[in-house]
Amino acid sequence: MPAISVPLVAASVKLLAAALAFAEAPGLKSGHSVYDAATKLLKAKPKRLTALAGDLTHAAETLFADFPDTPPDAAALFSQMVEATLPDAPALAKAKLDPATACDAMLGKLTDPEHLRAPMPDLFRDLVTPTLTAMLGNRDVIADIEPALWAEVLQTGNRIDETTTDTNQRVRELQADMTAKIDRLIAEKEQVARDLHIKEGMLIGLARNYAQNASDFESALAGLQLALETAARQQARNALPSNLGEAVDSVIAKVDDLNDQDQMAAADDLLRAEMNRLDAEIEERKAVQSRIIDKAIAQAIYQADADALADRTLRRIQLDGPSREDQFKRLRHEVLRRYNEGLRTGVPFVLNAAIGLARRCIDIAPTPYLEAMAQNDLANALQTKGTRTEGPEGAKLLAEAVTAFRASFDVCTRMDHPVEWAVTQNNLAISLRNQGIRTDGLAGAELLADAVTAYRAALEVSTRTDHPVEWAVTQNNLAGALQSQGTRTEGPAGAKLLAEAVTACRAALEVYTRTDHPVEWAMTQNNLAISLRNQGIRTDGLAGAELLAEAVAAFRAALEVRTRANHPVQWAQTQNNLANALSDQGNRTEGPAGADLLAEAVTACRAALEVRTRADHPADWAGTHHNLALALLSRADHDTTTDPRPDLTEALAAVEAALTVFDPVNMSFNHTEATRLRDAIKTRLDALPPR
Predict the structure, then answer these.
(1) Are residues 112 and 208 in the same domain?
(2) For residue 169, is it within any domain?
(3) Domain limits for position 228
(4) Same structural domain, 146 and 91
(5) Any idea of the CA torsion for 47, 53, 59, 63, to the nearest 10 degrees?
(6) Considering its fold, how many domains does the chain have in total?
(7) Measured between alpha carbons, how far is residue 330 from residues 283, 294, 391, 436 in Å?
(8) Buried-state track 284-296, b at ≥16 Cβ within 10 A, e below 16
(9) Is there a single domain that holds both residue 142 and residue 63?
């Protein structure tokens, strides 16, 4: 199949615009056959397609004369508008193949007042949008265009011909403590790099940078994949014709050569120098500088340098010279894009990039209100990174999140911005609760109390009458904080807090119905079950048994929506929580029925660990191992168990695994509980008679 050129893609759009206009004209019976013929010709040779384009354009011009309420010169104007705005393949890709977005981008290119006067923009949109929809919705069209373009780009690449021995020799020259990790990364992605025509030196450099940047192998692997994909896009761009001049092309070529030779720092230095040189020539050479900065952004991704990425992204936006308000709007869009990407991928570099971008948003905010919004964005990114980070660094990030949330209150007061104030109170409470969960003793209790106070403050504005969904969100979150407080508080005070948590969950379910909000309904069912279970633990006799049964039923209800296929992380969370309730039931039930409940608890814990791996979810992995140890200890002590040693031995291994994550400084509460459990299991094992 011959490759389809970029001009041919543009001609295809013009062709189909004319064809669709012809097809949809009132009273023209033959129009659809013309449109069908045009669509089929997308697979034809370029000369056939180009020839027919002129004929159909002429047909469209004739057609405009018959349109009601259309200016006499509409056909000529439309032809000019199409000619001036034809999108190429990169433009369609930038629009993410969305017809409406692509059409808006086309209209955005128009500057002639004649083109912009009514009804020409609406007429243009009505004709071009469905045309693009038809073209981009055709799987054959996409299959023809995209692979051919890639084939044309990638034919110029060079294949890697260095031997595995050479690669291993280069790897052995890297730092000794990173050799195994880098070697494994290269082994995982060597074929991908070869397929993308990424050279050996660049692969080694990327592997080293992401091995040093990420704390675990899976994150490093995801970061390396991101860098390789960026490199492939850069290669594709390099293969396209350039009109930027030999000097710029030479810099790009030198950067690529340095990267290919594993000299990324030198490549970055070269790019920095080139950007500084261009500062004096911004107006005359804006297109040149834009190309260099785009390359530098890619370089920052290669090196997992979040600060450089943030600086260069801001510089790229400022290069276009928009107003300060527009600069802020565009930069904040990048903050949210990187933040959502970090939530999805879990790559630390991406969340760090969101944090860096948010800090720069604060620096350029044109008004105090927008600065407060940027403070909120920063706090959310810090909070997410903090909850995913172990040890002192995680505690530091959560503390910074709390500080950022509080800073936004200087502007977002309840009087001036009540809705934003309530949202920030809710987000602040989430950070305070996460801090409290990680903190033992009085300090942890005070943090949880602060979280409850912030949630209750939010509910003063987010009422059920005025903001029912936000009210339900906050009620659900309040229930979680009350539950955390209640489990740490003894006696009647603790029981009261748990009862309040149940009440808050049931209130949220009045809005979060399964029909209207299935995901939120399942989340709240899970949280309700946690509070019911904690109530049941503290309640003796039949009343306690009924509360535990209600908890198990609520967990199972949540699992009807939280399936492993659709919601794996939430499924694992609910399986873990279900295991705790089943274990509590088993402890209170004698005979085979109790043994069955404990077996179900162990099974649920092991199911959760299929998703909660140490690499991806270290804190959750540790928590589930702690719960598994509790279930195994309960089974060892059950009246049906004749030999407790196997369960006790496995329980000890599980809690010791948890203690490899629960550190005594920044997860002090979890560490204290796990240490007590480990000592109790050891005492039980020591008391057994020798075999």
Answers:
(1) no
(2) yes
(3) 163-237+246-262
(4) yes
(5) 170
(6) 3
(7) 21, 16, 34, 35
(8) ebeebbbbbbebb
(9) yes
b/e 40-57 (16+ beta carbons within 10 angstroms → b): ebbeeeeeebbebbeebb
**CB of 301 closer than 8 Å to CB of 226:** yes
Whether residues 146 and 168 share a domain: the answer is: no
> Which of 158, 174, 201 represents a domain boundary (last residue)?
158
**442, burial (CB in 10 Å: exposed 0-12, middle 13-18, buried 19+):** exposed
Taking the C-alpha atoms of residue 81 and residue 67, their distance in angstroms, rounded to an integer, is 18
- What distance lies between CA 626 and its chain's CA centroid? 29
pLDDT of residue 412: 86
* Average pLDDT for runs of 10 along the chain of length 691: 38 44 40 40 38 44 56 74 72 72 86 84 76 65 48 37 42 57 85 87 85 82 88 84 80 88 88 82 74 92 93 91 88 93 80 94 93 92 86 87 91 89 92 89 92 94 92 93 91 91 94 94 94 92 93 96 92 95 94 95 96 89 95 94 95 96 81 94 92 75
DSSP letter at 516 equals T
- Write out the H or E segment, with its range, that includes residue 209: helix 200-213
250 and 200 inside one domain: yes
Residue 663 lies in a domain: yes
Burial of 544 (0-12, 13-18, 19+ CB in 10 A): middle
Any domain includes 276? no
> Do 149 and 183 fall into the same domain?
no
Domain-ending residue, one of 134, 158, 182: 158
Quick check: pTM over 0.90? no
For residue 576, give the nearest of 505, 632, 626 by alpha carbon.
626
Q: Which two tokens stand for residue 590?
A: 């004698």
In whole angstroms, give the CA distance from residue 590 to residue 586: 8
Task: Supply 113's token pair.
Answer: 């007042």
Taking the C-alpha atoms of residue 630 and residue 633, their distance in angstroms, rounded to an integer, is 5
Domain contains 185: yes
